[in-house]
Structures are given as C-alpha cells and as structure tokens.
Specification:
Length: about 100
C-alpha cells in the first residue's frame, strides 16, 4: 500500500516526539532547523564554529560536515562524561565537568 505523506504533519509529529535524526543521530532541533542553519551558515560564512551542548550529536554532525566542506575549525563540548558517551553510543566529544 502506497501512502502519501503530509510534510507539515510529519514535521509536527517529529517535533512532538523528538524523533528527528540527521544521518541516524538524534537531533533536538526541529526538522526545519537544518535548512535555517544551513542558510545562516551560507550567509555569515564563519571561519570557526564552537558548539556548547552536543546532545546526541545530530546537529554536531551537520556542523562538522559543513566545517569539513568549508575547511574551517569546528569544536563541540558537552557535560556528558566519556563513560556516559560510551553507554549512550554517542561519538567521543570533549568533556566539560
């Protein structure tokens, strides 16, 4: 059975359930944020990106890809300990106690 998907309804569902992912990594941002952040980065063309609050890594991955493409510095920090990162299956990130 082939069903049509209403994009707005799907985005509302993602926002309410918190199940939005970017390349398999959960994101706390709403789906439209990916487009807005991409547009913002194109507009301001930063030379360095620093993120505080990595979370589960979805936005970090997006920012990391942008940084690689643009050959700029990117660093992310979180308060999750290395042990918690391992238990939650989060890629290693600098730890700020």
């Amino acid at each position: 059975m082939n069903q049509r998907i209403n994009i707005e309804e799907y985005q509302r569902h993602l926002c309410m359930t918190g199940k939005f992912e970017f390349f398999g990594l959960p994101m706390s941002q709403v789906p439209k944020a990916v487009l807005y952040i991409s547009n913002l980065l194109q507009l301001i063309q930063p030379t360095k990106i620093i993120e505080f609050g990595t979370g589960r890594g979805g936005l970090s991955f997006l920012l990391g890809i942008y940084s690689q493409i643009r050959n700029i510095s990117f660093q992310t920090y979180d308060h999750v300990s290395p042990k918690e990162q391992f238990e939650l299956n989060i890629p290693p990130i600098p730890y700020l106690p």
